[in-house]
Amino acid sequence: MGNYFKKTDIEEVTLGFQPVNPITLDVKTVVMNELKANQFKGDNSQDPWEHLMNFKEACALQKRPEGTTEDQKKLLLFSFSLTKHANDWLYCLSTKTIQTWKELEEKFLDRFFTED
């Protein structure tokens, strides 16, 4: 199963990835379409840096609700930008341990960036 983490709490497995301070958001159709059109699979055929650039461009199209942060918006939307192995990786992260977008971005690059 590769470099995946083993979950020990069945509730964590059910919830999947959850940031520390989750929000709800009515995601615009154009944003969802952009995220789905540029999904990252987690194999060597895609550049994780390019994926992050595309992700940030899609996020810029989504207004964040009053009283929320840009980090909360990105943490919520990021799962929609992943598929296959990358999505599996995200959902294996411990629940409510990621507090900032920077933390998640660093974990993503640590996992998927390889120097050729």
Ends distance: 23 Å
What is the number of independent domains?
Answer: 1
Mean pLDDT: 87
The helix/strand class is mainly alpha
Please give the largest β-sheet. none
Summarize the structure.
This is Retrotransposon gag domain-containing protein. This protein is an all-alpha fold. It contains six helices and no strands.
What does the secondary structure layout of this molecule look like, with pairings?
Layout: H1 10-15, H2 29-37, H3 48-60, H4 70-77, H5 84-91, H6 101-112
Protein name: Retrotransposon gag domain-containing protein
Organism: Trifolium medium
Question: Can you describe this structure?
Answer:
- This protein is mainly α and 116 residues long.
- It has one domain (10-112).
- The chain has helices spanning 10-15, 29-37, 48-60, 70-77, 84-91, 101-112.
- Helix 2 packs antiparallel against helix 3.
- This is Retrotransposon gag domain-containing protein.
Descriptive labels:
6 helices; mainly alpha; disordered N terminus; Retrotransposon gag domain-containing protein; globular; 116 residues
